[in-house]
Amino acid sequence: MELNLKNPIAFFDLETTGINVAKDRIIEISILKIDPGGKEDHLTIRINPTIPISPEASQIHGIYDEDIEDALTFAEVAKNLVHFLEGCDLSGYNASKFDIPLLAEEFLRVNVEFDFKRRKVIDVQVIFHKMEQRTLSAAYKFYCKKELKEAHSAEADAHATYEILKAQLDRYNILENDVDALSKFSTIAESVDFAGRIVYNKNGVEVFNFGKHKGVPVEEVLKNEPSYYSWMMNGDFPLYTKKVLTEIKLRAFNN
Question: What is the pLDDT of residue 188?
Answer without folding.
Answer: 64
